[in-house]
Amino acid sequence: MNVTYNQGHALKIIILGAVVRAALIFIAASLLVASPLSRADYVASAKEERDWAARIAKSPPSADTLGGAPYPGAKLDSRRSGEKTAENQGKPMVYVYLVRASMADVRAYYNGPGRREAGVPILNDSNGSVEIMYFMNQKKIAAPAVAPAQPASAAAAGSEAATSSTAPAAPAAKAPAEPDTAKQAIDAVNALRGLFGR
After folding, report:
1. What's the Cα-to-Cα distance from 153 to each of 17, 148, 150, 162, rounded to whole Å?
2. pLDDT tens, residue by residue, 143-160
3. Which positions ≥6 away from 101 have C-beta within 8 Å?
4. Mean pLDDT within 168-174
């Protein structure tokens, strides 16, 4: 009878150990995966919003920074830009422009003559105006692409030819890759399995 008690007791301990291991692995993986998402829950203070708005008003983005000229007549709303940028903790910067025009006209501009490499900015209908939001990576803002030096043969070609053609922009340097959170979670789970003998 004593042998059966020990086998049953051992089985309970094994099951309990497996449950605890699974719970610890789940908790560790959840913490690693959820940490980048915490920015979505961030609520900026009014001071942060004002600080970002002042910074944006002091040095508004150029057409080069935005990847093209904004819709004609659109005005930068530094207050709204500051709110949106503060919500994102400055990553990315958000520039909000307002214009009194129809949504169809603004959309047609960005799909036609105002087309950007980065695509159409986010457009929202805002009380009879259209809100145009540009989401910009700070690395791209800090280091815009620089045009390569003009070769000597092109400089010698006449001034008319030199002014009518534009040199292509140099490819932008690649930003360092962000860490792969899924890989980090898997590595953490594997490390925990090693700790618990599985």
Report:
1. 76, 14, 8, 10
2. 444 444 444 444 444 444
3. 71, 73, 129, 130
4. 46
